[in-house]
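Deviations from the work plan: none for this task. Representative record:
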Amino acid sequence: MKKLTEHLNKNKFGLFLVFCILGIMLATQFRLTRQMPTTFSSERAALLARQVEAAEKKHKELTKEVESLRQKVAKLTEEQGHLRTYQDTLTKYQILAGTLAVEGPGVEVTLDDAKKPLTAEENPNLYVIHDEDVLLVLNELRAAGAEALGINGERVTAMTEIRCVGPTILLNKTKRISAPFVIQAIGNPAALRNSLMMPGGVYDQLKDFITISIKTSENIKIKAATPPDYKYLKEGRG
Amino acid sequence: MKTIKIPYTMLVVSLILGFLLTVQIRVSREMVNAPPLERSFELTSRLKSLTEEIEGLMEEKNSLKQKINLLEKGGKIAEEALISEINKNRFWAGATPAYGPGVRVILNNPPGFGNNSELFNVRDEDLFNLLNELKAAGAEGIAVNGQRVTALTEVRMAGNKIVVNTKAIYPPYEILAVGNPEQLKTSLENGIAATFREWQMEVTITKESKVVLPPYEQELEFNYIKPQEAK
């Protein structure tokens, strides 16, 4: 030790070197500690990292949940598709039952009592419209593929009766309509018209007695009938 | 004396040097462990965007749940309502079997053969006039030889046969009608049946406590008709 001090004492240069190192270290230390306060403490960074991790976990769970909910919505929406099928089925039965107001192309057959002046020998009863004239036209239109029938906008249903009383027709028990009577049929206009106009057909049978005219139409509107209120009829076979 | 003091200075200097070295090493070790400034900023901004996304996801989850609830409830209600409407309209349309009290009408061509006898065979118009009388007398459902009478049922001659619902039917014709048996029978007896008998057709009308009507079996195919647009 004594030898060393003596040596150092002798060698002032060594001491100078030591102080140089000391100075550099102090300077570095000073700079480092100045930098320190601007960084987060390790605890804070760790806390942030934990929060991020938790948030990531929650995010993942929610994403999964939302995805499965989306699939469920898609499935349910698809199932609503069969509601449309139900709606189509309902519309068909409503058309046949006559409980839906309908429209479409077709023909209009106008019937009226004969306008010609009658001679004394002619029976005037022959020249007014009878139930069966109307029934004949309706029947022909059905056979020709009519999809719905009406008279002056009133719906002809399965149980619609035709009663010609003087210048009026009674139908659907409570409805009374006046001449001229327009029998309406929705369907293929050409097919309906041709069927009535067949040689020896409905037009030929009626034209000598009453006034009959047939015209096709792009849009015929027929009202819905009142839904039936059965007193005797029950569904099923009993 | 001076030579003795030097070792103390050296000692102090060495101590400080040692201390500084230790601190220096610890500080720089800590500096390496601590995340750099950029990483902390990144964590914070990541947390912020994650939180925002989570909020969005929560909102979507709630709205999806609401939608499912509505779809499930609405779907079930709509489906039940539709099925009930379909069943009612099928029945009204004549597309289901149906039964009730009423009458059975048997109508046959005049017996015997001879000149002009075929002129008074039962024709389509006889049948649709008969159906019209039954309807006017309050019939609620009718079938002709197993064919249900609907709004679109034709009764029409095709050659010498009568076709109903596109099916040929043959005499004797059996007409079943559900309604008030007394009213239906009386209405026919006092009207069209008398005319038929004058033509020598065979007509029997019996009141029945129960007749069963078959369903309409034609395919429902509509190409021109559509529901009127709701106003």
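Chain A touches chain B through 102 residues (CB under 8 Å).
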